[in-house]
Inverse folding.
């Protein structure tokens, strides 16, 4: 196929995919100003526009900043500093005045889309947690009077230290001492469809326990994976593990549906002599890999396909921040506007990363369709008469099979209960055998086309029924066939997976996720191509 034809195909597919799935993950940047040498807000606004960044987090509602972002179409998250919480919580009139004098004159020419109330209050020296919700409620009331309560989301950003433990992710829970403050706050978020905001720093986890944590794992460059023993979910980077810990902690409190937004994440380029990992190379690697990781919506192991909005921390080095040397060196730019390292915000030019077992560039698990073949076979073995099954290839490595097995039993929506202990297909208790069962079920449920037996190349179609003893391998109804359209409608018996995380989703929902992960593999190159044309 010619390059031009491929390009057109990609464009079509991407347009379809965007129509189908709507918005994607967004990358924003934090614009902290704890420094005495930064460029003027107008210069900064120009820089951000030049970088083509569409989402910016600021930490207060400084009028010069609000003015600088007028008519830029940049979506602004503003902050209410901890020092203002008392005033905001105490009197509605304080908030009404603030809104009238500080926000409304610049809205909507400055596109303020969210307000983060308080900054990591659980870590703040004064116990301000009790003020957060009353402040949020007063802001909500004030916005409502102005008719803006649907346009501007209200939340509060938190440190990961709000969890009592974060590993393994499935065991994560919020600290008991914060529950009385969290529960009503989470109810507020659900009621107003606002996200839970969290700041994630694999850097600190690495710095503070370098003997336990591999640098590669923190930098998204690990070639091995860490398994959560309770769920079997595999983690190839710490960011996903931290984010899933938040999802599990929310689920444990029965807040399964609340979205999570990562309001800060980054890596310092310089630190004290003890902070050996704080280098420009590592900062570049982390931020580049983070952008590349979220941009195609791969989600996390526990929430595949989930959109993740991430704000990179931070735009500038901030010379007045107290603490260790690294604190003043999180910026991608020096105060004079020179870049500390050449970060590509589009994710187009990526540092050579690790090869995941699936060999997938996006980090999604192998899924049928992860090949470069645009010719999709429909109908295939299930329909015509020749019966076929799909089994794991004995040539494939255990890691590859495990990863594909996890995909099939998770996002692939296969009911894998038959390979659980005491069930008919548990013995032989090998990944090869379990993967064969899961691959075949997926293949038959999907209509038995060759494409459905790809799994990143670790499976093969066979003519002989692999069933043994009481372990019966599914076969698609031979004559009435399971017709599948290009749009990917599956008619068949799809049992929803029984995972503690699976929100009460319909089978359609599960299938949508599969389509998303298939689409990502097609979409990413398209995205990259279109970006490079725009640039
Ligand atoms: C913080 O204050 C709230 C109410 O103002 C109180 O319920 C909570 O126990 C306090 N937390 C700590 C850690 O002191
Ligand atoms: C900007 O500041 C950095 C760090 O202080 C320095 O290395 C660099 O030379 C400066 N660039 C310009 C153009 O002044
Ligand atoms: C990934 O792909 C490369 C190049 O196509 C290949 O050499 C390598 O063996 C593959 N690795 C795995 C784990 O499949
Ligand atoms: C497509 O896949 C085939 C077979 O796996 C491989 O030989 C070929 O190089 C691939 N083409 C591209 C453009 O990746
Ligand atoms: C791609 O599709 C063509 C036409 O159906 C088929 O002959 C070829 O084997 C496929 N290649 C791969 C790598 O699936
Ligand atoms: C499946 O598709 C074929 C070819 O398009 C068609 O002839 C057949 O009637 C379809 N079967 C069902 C059950 O829809
Ligand atoms: C899938 O096909 C079934 C049966 O033909 C139909 O009822 C359903 O509406 C279709 N769903 C979609 C999303 O097309
Ligand atoms: C789907 O499968 C489950 C268990 O395998 C079975 O109980 C159920 O009756 C099936 N439903 C249909 C519509 O075939």
């Amino acid at each position: 196929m010619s390059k031009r034809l491929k390009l057109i195909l990609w464009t079509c597919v991407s347009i379809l995919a965007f129509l189908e799935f709507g918005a994607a993950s967004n990358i924003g940047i934090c614009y902290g100003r704890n420094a005495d040498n930064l460029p003027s807000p107008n210069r900064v606004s120009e820089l951000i526009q030049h970088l083509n960044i569409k989402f910016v987090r600021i930490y207060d509602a400084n009028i010069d900043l609000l003015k600088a972002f007028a008519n830029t179409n940049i979506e602004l998250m503003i902050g209410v500093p901890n020092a203002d919480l008392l005033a905001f919580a105490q009197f509605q009139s304080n908030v009404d005045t603030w809104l009238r004098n500080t926000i409304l004159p610049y809205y909507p020419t400055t596109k303020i889309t969210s307000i983060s109330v308080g900054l990591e209050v659980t870590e703040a020296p004064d116990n301000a947690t009790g003020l957060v919700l009353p402040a949020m409620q007063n802001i909500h009331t004030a916005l409502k009077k102005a008719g803006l309560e649907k346009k501007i989301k209200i939340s509060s950003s938190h440190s990961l230290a709000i969890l009592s433990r974060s590993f393994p992710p499935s065991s994560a829970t919020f600290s008991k001492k914060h529950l009385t403050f969290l529960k009503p706050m989470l109810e507020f978020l659900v009621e107003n469809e606002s996200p839970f905001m969290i700041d994630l720093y694999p850097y600190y986890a690495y710095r503070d326990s370098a003997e336990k944590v591999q640098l590669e794992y923190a930098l998204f460059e690990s070639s091995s994976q860490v398994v959560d023993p309770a769920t079997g979910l595999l983690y190839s980077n710490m960011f996903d593990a931290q984010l899933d810990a938040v999802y599990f902690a929310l689920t444990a409190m029965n807040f399964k549906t609340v979205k999570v937004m990562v309001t800060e994440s980054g890596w310092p380029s310089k630190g004290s002599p003890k902070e050996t990992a704080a280098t420009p190379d590592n900062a570049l690697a982390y931020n580049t890999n983070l952008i590349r990781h979220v941009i195609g919506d791969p989600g996390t192991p526990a929430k595949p396909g989930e959109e993740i909005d991430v704000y990179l921390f931070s735009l500038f080095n901030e010379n007045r921040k107290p603490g260790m040397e690294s604190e003043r060196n999180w910026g991608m730019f020096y105060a004079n506007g020179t870049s500390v390292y050449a970060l590509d915000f589009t994710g187009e030019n990526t540092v050579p990363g690790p090869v995941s077992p699936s060999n997938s560039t996006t980090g999604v698990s192998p899924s049928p369709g992860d090949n470069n073949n645009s010719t999709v076979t429909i109908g295939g073995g299930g329909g015509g008469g020749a019966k076929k099954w799909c089994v794991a290839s004995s040539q494939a490595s255990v890691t590859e099979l495990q990863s594909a097995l996890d995909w099939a039993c998770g996002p692939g929506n296969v009911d894998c209960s038959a390979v659980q202990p005491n069930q008919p297909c548990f013995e032989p208790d090998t990944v090869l055998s379990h993967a064969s069962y899961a691959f075949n079920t997926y293949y038959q449920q999907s209509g038995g086309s060759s494409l459905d037996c790809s799994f990143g190349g670790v499976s093969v179609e066979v003519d002989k029924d692999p069933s043994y003893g009481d372990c019966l391998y599914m076969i698609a109804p031979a004559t009435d066939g399971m017709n599948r359209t290009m749009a990917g409608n599956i008619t068949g018996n799809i049992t929803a997976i029984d995972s503690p995380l699976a929100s009460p989703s319909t089978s359609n929902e599960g299938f949508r996720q599969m389509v998303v992960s298939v689409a990502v593999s097609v979409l990413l190159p398209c995205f990259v191509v279109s970006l490079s044309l725009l640039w």
